[in-house]
Design a protein that fits this description.
With 173 residues, this protein is mainly beta. The protein is built from 3 helices and 12 strands, in the order H-E-E-E-E-E-H-E-H-E-E-E-E-E-E.
Length: 173
Amino acid sequence: MTAPDPTPAAAPPDDPNSGTLRAALGRFATGVAIITCRGADGTPVGLTANSFASLSLDPPLVLWSLRQASSSVAAFEAAAHFAVNVLAETQVDLSRRFASAAADKFGDGVWAEGHGGAPVLTGCAAVFECRVESRQSVGDHVLFIGRVLRLADLAVAPLLFQGGHYRMLGEIL
């Protein structure tokens, strides 16, 4: 006779649009990135996101999503290029700045112009400069798929986000 499993599978939430779904999704640790583009008027646009993921190695494609209600959605939908600046753990203040309604988000950090004018941040764990391959509305978000045109990779610890908090990478001994 075997003992019952002490950790049965959790029942699905009654309302998958509730805070229960958000809390469960928050269990998944992600990196933190500042996604940037150049607005139609030439103004740099950027925001903090943790919805970034790899999609394909051949061709080199990445994806990220943006809430349709975001004030930045029009700029990203019109842009032909974007940059994904994967933040280092030392860049948490920049993450907070780009997640806020600060007037001059690009006032801090050292920025350069990437493909299509998308701002590229110095000192990131990685940067992916992309041309938009596709965008589509899915649920309450817009999904952006980009072809990686150029990348940079720096051997520094990335900033993480999990359970509604910033985290640091630690070694498992």
